[in-house]
């Protein structure tokens, strides 16, 4: 996980990672900027330059939120799978929500994140409805806690969705390469915006025998 990951800092309890967190903590902010510059250098691309120092921090926060959302999609996937095995077949169809959410978080796809946001909202509504219907006190407490967790997840996913809207397509491509370095894509820095090119390996034909 990156510097200041919400799983190892107080950011998890204050609404998730944010640019403001790093701007208010000069030491953490500088560490985050150095880390993202190093990540860019590892893929052979100069870090984007801007008069606004918060731009680099947006890349840091986007990567952190991406990993956080992916974790929650995994939890939702297991949750839906458990209920589908318990013969609540409607949850089989709801598996598409976590799958789209994971793809959206990993590849920074706005449309997929919107779909996952709708899914999280549906789950929160279902938890609150269950809280009203259930009679057992213990079940009510558990269901209420789960509903609050869904609301927290909704907040993080919504923040991630808003952040994605602030990036250009070229910047989103950079984020995809940063989070998926194993993909066979090389970036070349030119006078204009960075462009992605697919590496092509030409294998000469074998000599006829």
Q: Quick summary of this structure?
A:
The protein has 209 residues and is mainly alpha-helical. The protein has helices at residues 19-24, 26-42, 54-85, 90-94, 96-107, 110-133, 137-164, 169-179; strands at 185-188, 195-198.
Strand content bin: under 5%
**Helix-strand pattern:** HHHHHHHHEE
Average residue-wise pLDDT: 76
* Radius of gyration (Å): 21 Å
Proportion of residues in helical segments: 55-70%
What would your notes on this structure say?
The chain is mostly helical and 209 residues long. 65% of the residues lie in helices and 4% in strands. It has helices spanning 19-24, 26-42, 54-85, 90-94, 96-107, 110-133, 137-164, 169-179; strands spanning 185-188, 195-198. Strands 1-2 form a two-stranded antiparallel sheet. Strand 1 (185-188) and strand 2 form a beta hairpin. Helix 3 runs antiparallel to helix 5 (96-107) and helix 3 (54-85) packs antiparallel against helix 7. The radius of gyration is 21 Å and the shape is elongated.
Task: Please write out the topology.
Layout: H1 19-24, H2 26-42, H3 54-85, H4 90-94, H5 96-107, H6 110-133, H7 137-164, H8 169-179, E1 185-188, E2 195-198
Helix pairs in contact: 2-3, 3-5, 3-7, 5-6, 6-7
């Amino acid at each position: 996980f990156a510097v200041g990951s919400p799983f190892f800092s107080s950011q998890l309890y204050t609404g998730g990672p944010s640019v403001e967190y790093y701007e208010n903590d000069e030491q953490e902010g500088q560490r985050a900027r150095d880390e993202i510059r190093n990540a860019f250098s590892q893929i052979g691309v100069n870090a984007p330059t801007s008069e606004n120092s918060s731009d680099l921090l947006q890349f840091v926060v986007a990567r952190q939120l991406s990993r956080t959302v992916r974790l929650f999609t995994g939890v939702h996937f297991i949750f839906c799978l458990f209920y589908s095995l318990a013969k609540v077949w409607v949850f089989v169809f709801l598996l598409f929500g976590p799958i789209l959410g994971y793809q959206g978080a990993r590849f920074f796809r706005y449309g997929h994140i919107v779909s996952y946001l709708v899914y999280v909202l549906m789950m929160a509504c279902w938890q609150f409805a269950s809280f009203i219907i259930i009679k057992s006190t213990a079940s009510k407490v558990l269901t209420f806690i789960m509903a609050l967790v869904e609301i927290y997840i909704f907040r993080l996913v919504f923040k991630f969705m808003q952040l994605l809207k602030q990036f250009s397509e070229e910047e989103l491509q950079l984020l995809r390469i940063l989070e998926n370095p194993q993909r066979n894509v090389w970036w070349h820095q030119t006078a204009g915006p960075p462009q992605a090119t697919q590496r092509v390996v030409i294998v000469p034909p074998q000599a006829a025998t």
